[in-house]
Amino acid sequence: MIGKSVIRKEAWEKVTGKAKYTLDTVSSGTLHAKLVTSPYAHARIRDIRTEKAYAAPGVRAILTGEGLPLTGEDLRDRPPIAWEKVRYHGEVVAVVVADTLMQAEQAAQLISIIYEPLRVVGSPKEALAEGAPLLHENLATYQKGKYTYPEPGTNIAHRTKIRKGSMEKGWAESDVVVEASFSFSPSDHAAMETRCATAEIRADGTVVITASTQAPFMIKRLIGEYFGEEVGKVVVHTPFVGGAYGGKAPVQLELLAYLAAKAVGGRKVSVWNTREQDMVTSPVHIGMEATIKLGATKDGKITAAEMVFLFDGGAYSDKAIDVTRAAAADCTGPYHINNVWCDSLCVYTNHPYASPFRSFGHCEQAFAIERTIDMLAEKLQMDKLAIRERNAILPGNTTPTQVMLNKSNVGNLPACIARVRELIEWDEWQRIEINSRLVRAKGVSCSWKTSTIDTDASSGAIITFNTDGSINLITGVVEIGTGTKTVLAQILAEKLKMDINDIHVKMDIDTQTTPEHWKTVASRGTFMAGRAVLSAADDAIRQLKAIAACILRVSSEDLEVGYGNVFLRDDPSVYIPIKEIAYGYKYPNGNAIGGQIIGRGHYILRHLTPLDKETGAGKPGPEWTVCSHAVEVEFDKRDYTYRIIKAVSVIDIGKVLNEKAALGQVMGAMSMGLSFASRETFFFDRYERVLNAQFRTYRPLRFGEHPEYIADFVYTPQIDAPYGSRGVGEHGLIGMPAALANALSTAAQVPLNQLPLLPELIWRTKEGWFNDSV
Amino acid sequence: MKSEVILHINGEQRSTVIRQADTLLVVLRHLELTGAKPGCLNGDCGACTVLVNDTPIKSCMMLAIETVGQEITTIEGLHDTAIQRAFVEQFAFQCGYCTPGFVMNAYALTTQKPDADEETIRKWLESNICRCTSYQEIEQAVRSVLVQKKR
């Protein structure tokens, strides 16, 4: 069962159009909300006039930001609806609720708002410059988490410091030093299902929310914290989610749906983003400016790393703080460096606010680190894979946050590198001129990631038996596309030695009946929920054995569970079918014992600690998955266009649980990484307004533009994980931007240190390189 | 302006009241045929693809009133087809949101162009966006059906 490409449990629902997503569940009679958003990136709101809109047909309520509490997971800096000031283009200023969406849209156009534009902040560097306008004058007064460190009087929402070893020593030991700067603007997740939520408040005060989210249990908690609702009276439903990639981890529209429902006496209200709004109004993929300085000995041993990451958190910090912390925690990449100095800042700008994006800060920092390592290799005239092997992190080394690694909590990077070397035929050639125009080149990178989530993140599982001996499997993992729920069924089937078809998976989440899973993020679903499922199975096995022991008149220690029976280990002919005891056992005379078998289990992450404020020391996650990547391109020297020919990722997965699902996760992540790296960015005008918030001008990779994907695995078990498997949902993505940039830098023979790698960027860089200016 | 119309959907006659400005996508979803998904309402993503007289059409770009008298096929009208089986077996979906649109497009391609070459496959399928898979899985699903048809 383990490792097989078991067909996904929801496969037929999805290929027949029957799978229900949030918007598909909106019933007639539901009211519709239209968001009125800011046309300015930074402005004072002088006046909002809603009278005409109120008078429009069908309008039930109009919401503005007056009197609402500030929200935010680490730092409460964001009003759910802007009040007095807008801080990004697309920020919600008012919400119109009407009988139909069309009426809401028409009324929204009748709202008149007078803005007084303010000076805008267009990048982290601008935000940190002397005299920059402050986005949050009241930063000092905001409620914040214990481990969040805003710097009032500046645009810094949070700073993570990593201090390991001695920089003085590190530089003294180095023979060469390289330094380079990197940058890219915010971009988008572009999940095909735009974010949406409905809310209603029932007569007894129960708040019922249906949302397209990765964090139904966090919605429940936050509605309680922000608005004083009893947490037990907030019920969140999440059906299938149409893509998330981190963009549905933040809680935003759910708050508006709740407020809207409250404004109309509890009636059900639907809030749904248009594509254009989804791209700018809801949280985006973070931008970054970074400077990396590496020192190394002549033979390529890196002795010192100094890095500054200035993340463009946008107008509000929300989850961006965590992203910048995660980037810092793994700041060296998968390399053993004794002397490390890193400052990772979450900086406020007048851009749409940032959220997690698949890889959680890692593809961003890896782009900077891996480009610098290539530059170091060039300076040392070393092979680019060899320098990575030379510095590869190993058991016995410590991470930047000073966690001691062992054979379980880190994978085998040298093995990943060796496999990539074969798969991309690295030793054959790295750059060849095909003719006077075309050049082929290869680029490589390595990556790693741990999860940097709450130290007390937990997951629960419930299994209930049916009268035919089959099982219902209920977990809090949201089916966002990863296939985790099918993998969990495989884990259970393996444990109970039963047919996978006899395990029925509850796909949707209902926080009233589904056990909690912290959030479906961080590639931790299989590990945490998997452990919970194993624990629930053990619980059920114990119950099954207890009742069978009674019926069979044997000791429960002598019993085994499997193949639909409970049987004697040494004589399987003595057995009782599970279906006869699943709902309790009835003796021939009518007497009964037992009752429905209900197994329950949970798992909580172990021994994690927050990072120390001054040194960063602490344990952010349970294990590090390591990977190596390569990309081959064909570059046209005449017009600077290129084709991506081949992309390779080798990941130490520990153990494959479902082969096709695992390959799909890796290749899909690679695709997203290449799409981001090659073409995806928001373009801002001088007023920091987003110019390309639609798929015609923001153009993700399409069919036919995809290269050949090769995903392969190395198997170093994580001993405490189900069957030794490691997190793998994001890792194919992490090294892609770096590998592509390295390949193109080799092809064009110019360092390419910005994203996305549009032909125009390559042309500008190349021209600038030779002419000493652009 | 509203009018009552009869639409021919998946072999059935469906009577409904529509505004003349309603797109086919909106009307289908009101009829609880929610397989066609809104993704961009701008013809860019293909999540709302249905067949009108066997031609794949982005239903967000066509007015419902234009389809009166024409044969509309939505994902709900396909039952256990080769392309659906191929999508299941090749893991050619993840979140599933773009899947109905991709399946409709690929269904029309594989039934109407059994000899499709690489260029034809690309031209047909580049109109849809999938954000989860690498497209390689979808390509394999489509090719596996084309190979079956050739046999």
From TrEMBL, chain A:
Domain of life from the UniProt record: Bacteria
SUPFAM superfamilies attached to this UniProt entry: CO dehydrogenase molybdoprotein N-domain-like, Molybdenum cofactor-binding domain
Alphabetical UniProt keywords: Molybdenum, Oxidoreductase
PANTHER family with a match to the protein in the record: ALDEHYDE OXIDASE 1-RELATED (PTHR11908:SF132), XANTHINE DEHYDROGENASE (PTHR11908)
Domain Aldehyde oxidase/xanthine dehydrogenase a/b hammerhead, chain residue ranges per copy: 16-119
Protein name per its UniProtKB record: CO/xanthine dehydrogenase Mo-binding subunit
GO molecular function, one term: oxidoreductase activity
One Pfam family recorded for the sequence: Ald_Xan_dh_C
Entries under InterPro entries matching the protein: Ald_Oxase/Xan_DH_a/b, Ald_Oxase/Xan_DH_a/b_sf, Ald_Oxase/xanthine_DH-like, AldOxase/xan_DH_MoCoBD1, AldOxase/xan_DH_MoCoBD2, AldOxase/xan_DH_Mopterin-bd_sf
From TrEMBL, chain B:
Coiled coil: none
Keywords: 2Fe-2S, Iron, Iron-sulfur, Metal-binding, Oxidoreductase
EC number: 1.2.7.4
Keyword Transcription: no
Gene Ontology MF term list: 2 iron, 2 sulfur cluster binding; anaerobic carbon-monoxide dehydrogenase activity; metal ion binding
Keyword Secreted applies: no
A Pfam family assignment: Fer2_2
Span of domain 2Fe-2S ferredoxin-type: 3-78
Highest taxon in the source lineage: Bacteria
Protein name (record): Carbon-monoxide dehydrogenase small subunit
